[in-house]
Amino acid sequence: PKTIYLSKEDAESRKYRVLRKIDLSMNSIVDQTVSLIMSSLKKVRLHSLNLGNNLISKEGVTSITHWLSKNKSLKELCLKQNDLTKEGLELLQNSITKHRSLEALNLSNTNLSNSGEIINKIISSTKLKTLILRDCKFSKNDISLIINSITNSNSNSNSDENVSKNSKSKS
Q: What are φ and ψ of residue 27, in 5° steps?
């Protein structure tokens, strides 16, 4: 797989239809620039988007979630080391629960203290295979909610597998 690094000008001036990965991390991207990037990616089928280590806050997340509602091909999203806030995370959670192809989400170093319930909803209502939450400043209660969600999610997966196996054996 080929990684393509685009400047803001490249993204705005070219019309890409299929890209495997765009890595725009560590570019000091602010919310207004996120809006431009997302609008330039309207007709792009993208597998992986890395916007980590930028200056993205709730307003930038709004642009990302609007784009996600129209782009169903994304499998990996990295928003690590941004200023997402609890409100931004709620917006993201509402969007990705409807986005069935997303498999990996990286929210590391985003100061998500007191966001355990939202992470719980993300875990229980998505098909994520990878969720990276390194150094998010979670409280003990957040950690407890997240662990319970993972445990319940695994129990449900095992139940689904057992139901599937049982229905096959009855056939």
A: -120, 10
Straight-line distance from the first to the last Cα atom of the chain, in angstroms, rounded to the nearest whole number: 41
Structure tokens at 54: 């930028």
- Complete DSSP assignment for 87-152: HHHHHHHHHHTS-TT--EEE-TTS--TT-HHHHHHHHHHS--SEEE-TT----HHHHHHHHHHHHH
Given the structure tokens 């057992």, which residue do they identify? Answer: 162
In contact, 100 and 73? CB cutoff 8 Å? no
CA 46 to CA 49: how far, in whole Å? 7
| Cα gap 37→13, rounded to integer Å | 11
If you average pLDDT over residues 44-63, what whole number do you get?
96
pLDDT score of 152: 82
CA trace torsion 141, 142, 148, 152 (10° rounding): 150
Which is higher by pLDDT, 138 or 166?
138
What backbone phi and psi angles, to 5 degrees, belong to 76? -135, 130
Q: How many CB atoms lie within 10 A of CB 121?
A: 18
Say if pTM beats, i.e. exceeds, 0.85.
no
Residue 25: which residues within 8 A CB-CB, separation 6 or more?
50, 51, 52, 53, 54, 78
